[in-house]
Amino acid sequence: FGSRSPPAPASSLALHPPACPAAMASRALLFWVALATSAPATFGVEETRNVGPFTGISVSGHIEVHTNVSADGTASSLMLSGAPETLSGVRSSVDAWGTLILSRTPGTGFEHVVAKAVVPGPLTYAGASARGSLFAAVVSGTVV
Questions:
Q1: Topology of 44-143 in CATH?
Q2: Alpha-carbon distances, residue 138 vs 63, 66, 68, 134 (angstroms)
Q3: Residue-by-residue pLDDT tens, the chain, 144 positions
Q4: What is the arrangement of strands in the sheet containing 63-69, beginning at the earlier edge strand?
């Protein structure tokens, strides 16, 4: 029957890149997507917003909020992080019930924004909609 060489072990196949252009293109695309999605975090700035006292939070529009309770139990504060042109499109206000409202001005994009909020005690209201997210350790009121 003639001599045949045994098949190459799998480990030696991994040393050679695929000859298929589609496979190489998909790997290159994955690399560039990963690089592009990490860029906004690299070029971000922080902005402190002057808002009135608040005990509840309502967030929407690709904004991620992390809350902490103040050490002395008296202060409310808000700091935003993101690209400068993105932060200018973020609206922040406190309504008559003491709820901080964070949203986007229509047409200002969907770039990621992170907000750090400090409240005097447990949140009395916590709500997130339209791709907003809210992380709170202590909530004593309504969660929506």
A1: Pectate Lyase C-like (2.160.20)
A2: 20, 11, 8, 12
A3: 556 666 655 544 444 455 556 555 556 555 555 545 544 444 589 999 999 999 999 999 999 999 999 888 888 999 999 999 899 999 999 999 999 999 999 988 788 999 999 999 999 999 999 889 999 988 888 888
A4: 45-49, 77-82, 113-119, 63-69, 133-135
CA distance 68 to 77: 10
Please state the pTM of the whole predicted model: 0.68
CA 68 from chain centre, in angstroms, equals: 17
- 113-119 and 77-82: which strand pairing? antiparallel
Which pair of structure tokens corresponds to residue 143? 């969660």
Residues listed for the chain: 144
Q: Which parts of the chain fold into alpha helices (H)?
A: 10-13, 21-42, 84-87
∠ Cα 61 67 68 (to 5°): 170
